[in-house]
Structures are given as structure tokens and as C-alpha cells.
Amino acid sequence: MSGATRPNFFLLLGLDPHDRWDQAVFERRLEEKTREWSRASSGVGKPAQEAAPRREVIPQIREVMNKDESRAEEAAAALVEADKARTALLAEFEEALRIGVAKGYVTSGELAGWIKTYAGALTQAEIRKRITVPILAGSAAAAAPVAPQLDSVTAKTIRDRLDTLGLRDLYALLGMPAKTDTTTLAQRARSLNAELQRNMNKTADLTARIELLGNAMEIFKSDDMRSRYDETQRMAGLDAILHKYDQAFRAAGKVDERQAALFLAEARSAGWDPQAALARLEALAAQRKWAIRVGGVEMIAQQQVCGACRALNEPSARYCKQCSAQLQLPCPRCDHQTSSDARACPVCGFPVGNRFLVDSLLDESQRQRNARQLNEALQSVAEAEQAWAHAQAGDPRMQRIRQERQQVEILLQQQSATIQRLRLLMDSERKYFEARALLDGLAPDTLPDQVTLRRQAE
Ligand SMILES: [Zn+2]
Ligand SMILES: [Zn+2]
To answer: Which one of 83, 169, 350, 368 has the minimum C-beta count within 10 Å?
Structure first.
């Protein structure tokens, strides 16, 4: 050290001893500091007391820093001193860490504080790596709130009936995507129920279906009941995932960090907050007396879940790496960028999750149109219009709906014109030969009752 009585000049001026020497940078920095110190020394209190002796060393700073040899010595001394400071900071961090993790978790607020305080000694990644206990989000060191679920009897009844029919959930029973809005689901449950009730041949399968549709009508009667059902499903999903990993961890007798990361990713994809899933894993680990080491929880929390295939994607990704679907979509009503996993726009409430239903209805309409089932096609289009009501005219899906309706209506007009012409030929003018020629020129199934009409024309 070049004297314990004065500060190191590199450190005092905030110059990095590793940097190539730049006289201009030095001059500028010294000038700034000189101004700073004279301002401070004209004040009162501790800053003024500290500034005075600094002003006195300015000539000495010039002397030392302007000579290559003495400057090199000063730089070497600065490195030693910085190293000492870093060592002291590291020791301080070790102590903070020891006390911080003793409670079994670290809050994200604590972590942020450490990252800031010990930035001179450790990188963010180095600090995170040292934390072997879970990092809980903000104030959420307290248990995560539990959302209401269905009562256990109803839940079990529905589960058993679904199992009997080999169905995954009530959405599969209705044949509708899980992101569809509640009102549309309720309508479908009612119309399916009415349809099945009309069927006189009540097989065991049909009876089970009707009973389950009764449950579905009850569940989709309100958003509250629907969220209870979804929460029950979500909970059962996590139990299944946890059970699977329990087997793996039990074999190893501990929770391996990489396996824990897989568990958390799977839970996230099933709609869980990784922090809440981790709490469940920790409870299991405590029960089984496993050592647990988990990292990267926040990283998994930031990933985007694809609404189409549920794959996890990087926070900045625009398209799903698994199915190429868009991960952020503008709301068709208010243009707000909405996660592809959302059921409704968080700003205006537009049921963005209905897009899966709308797309399948439009595909259905196209298929029906090609098979000349035009009234059925018109029905599908009407359902799509209802599920996508109030979207802006420029929205691509809205445009597709409009085009589909147009095509179906054109075909319907052509159909009715052809029928009118045939009726005129056969009923009024009795020109059966011409009617036959007209019918022969049509593709099969162009008209409803085409076969009957052909027979009449014979
Ligand atoms: Zn996807
Ligand atoms: Zn919106």
C-alpha cells in the first residue's frame, strides 16, 4: 500500500486499475472530483470534514498519477485493496446467507437486497446458486391462498361418471375446448341434454351421459361454479404429477435439483404457479425426510404457457416452440396484447379463449358446406358469430367468419334458384327432358332430395 494515511488514488477517483491508462479520462475525473470536494467542503457536517483533506491531496494525486512508475505501483495497490474489500464483502454475504436460510426459505425481497448489496463481490447467478432453500415471492412467505373447489362428494360423482365413459373432463363431454366461455358451455350442455333426452333407446352409456350433462348444466350455470370445477381439476392434476415424481424421488431418497426443475415445469404447464407447486413438493419432502435442493423457480414462473398445447416457452418468445401457435394475441375488441393461455381479455373481458371453438366451428362449417349440408353450415357459422360477438371488423377471425357466411349464403341462393327452375320445368312446363339434363349436370348432393327429384323427372 502506498501509505495507510491517504486513500488509494485509483479507488478515490473511481478509476478501474485494470483499464488502459487514459490521460484525458483521468483529467476529467479529477476535475469532477475537485468540484465535488470544494462544493462539499463549503458545507457543514461529515461530508465537509471528509472533503477538506481530499482537496489537500490533489497536488499529490497529480504527482503520483502522472508518472508511469508510481502510477503502476498505485494500480497494484488498488487491486490489493479492492481484493480485500471484496473478501470482506464475501464474508459479510456468507453471514447474511447463513442467517437468511436458517428459517427454511428466502423471500424474493431478501434476495433482491443481497443482489444489490453484494454486487461488487458476487454476480446475481452466483448468489442464486448459493441459495439451497426455496425463494418465496414477496410477501408470499405466508401460505398461498387456496381457491375454492367443489365439495368432495360432487367432485367424486363427476369423476366416477367421467371414468365410466372414458372421458377426461366435462369439456370432453361437451366436445368443447377448455377455454370456451361459461355461457356457451352452459348452452351446449342444455342442447346436448335435450337431444339425448329425446332418444328413446336409453342404454347404460346414454343414461350415464345424461346424468353427467346434469352435472355439467349445474357446473356451467355460473362462473363461480365453473372456477370451482377448474380448481378441482387443477388440484387433481398436481396430485397426479406429484405422485409420479414421488416415485422417482423415493428411489433416490432425495430431491435432485434437475428433477425438481422438471416437476416444476410440468406443474406450471398444468396451470400451477411454480411457487405454490414448490410448497407442495417441500411438504412432501419434509414428510419423507428428503434433502431438497431447488433452483430456477422464478425462471420457470416467467415462462409462457402456450394456450394451444400447454408447452412452456421463453418469456420473450412470440411463437410456441412446440406447435408454432402465437403466444401473445391482440384482443379482437380492445387490441390489448393477451396471453394465448387466457380465457378472457384482462382489460375488456372479451372471451379470447373462444378462438379455439370459433376455429373448430369454421372448419366444421367448411366441411358441411363441401358436403352441401348448407343449413347445418349456416348453424355452425351462427354459433361462431355468437362466440366471437363484438370483435372489431378488422379482426382476422371475424373476417373469416364473414367470408364463411357469405360462401354458405351464395350456395344456398344457387340451390334455391336451381330448385325453382326444376319445379318450373317439371310442374308447370312439363319439360322432363330438360329437367333431367339439368339434374345430370349437377354434382351429387348439390340439392337436398336430389335423388327424389331425379326420380320425379324420369
Ligand atoms: Zn404450443
Ligand atoms: Zn380486450
So the answer is: 83
**Which ligand has the nearest atom to the CA of 333?**
2
Residue 141 burial (CB count, 10 A): 16
Q: Is residue 329 part of a domain?
A: no
Is 340 within the bounds of a domain? no
- Please give the Cα distance from 432 to 416 (Å, whole number): 19
Count the neighbouring beta carbons within 10 Å of the beta carbon of residue 4. Answer: 6
Distance between CA atoms of residues 323 and 1, nearest Å: 62
- Provide the residues around ligand 1 (an ion) whose CB is within 5 A: 306, 308-309, 311, 320, 322-323, 325
Cell of 436: 333431367
What is the whole-number distance in angstroms between the Cα of residue 321 and the centre of ligand 1?
7
Matching residue, cell 408454432:
324
Domain that holds residue 208: 152-227
Q: What is the whole-number distance in angstroms between the Cα of residue 353 and the centre of ligand 1?
A: 14
CA distances from 111 to 146, 351, 407 (A): 26, 38, 60
Which ligand does the CA of 326 lie closest to? 1
Ligand showing the shortest atom-to-Cα distance for residue 350: 2
Q: What is the DSSP string of 238-256?
A: HHHHHHHHHHHHHHHTEE-
What is the residue-level pLDDT of the chain in tens, covering all 458 positions?
444 578 899 989 989 888 889 999 999 999 999 998 888 888 777 878 888 888 888 999 999 999 999 999 999 999 998 888 889 989 989 988 888 777 777 777 788 888 888 887 888 888 888 887 777 654 443 444 567 889 989 999 999 999 999 999 999 999 999 999 999 999 999 999 999 999 888 888 899 999 999 999 999 999 999 999 999 998 888 989 999 999 888 888 888 888 889 999 999 999 888 888 888 888 888 888 888 878 788 888 889 999 999 999 999 999 999 999 999 999 999 999 999 999 999 999 999 999 999 999 999 999 999 988 999 999 999 999 999 999 999 999 999 999 999 999 999 999 899 989 988 888 888 888 888 888 888 887 788 778 888 888 87
> Which ligand gives the minimal distance to the CA of 323?
1
Using CA of residue 181, residue 182, residue 184, residue 188, what is the dihedral sign?
positive
The last residue of a domain, from among 195, 227, 259: 227
Query: What is residue 345's three-state secondary structure?
Result: coil
What is the 395 CA–ligand 1 centroid distance (Å)? 22
Q: How many domains does the chain have?
A: 3
Nearest ligand (C-alpha, residue 317): 1
Domain boundary among 208, 227, 246: 227
Query: Do 96 and 159 share a structural domain?
Result: no
Ligand 1 geometric centre to CA of 325 (Å) = 5
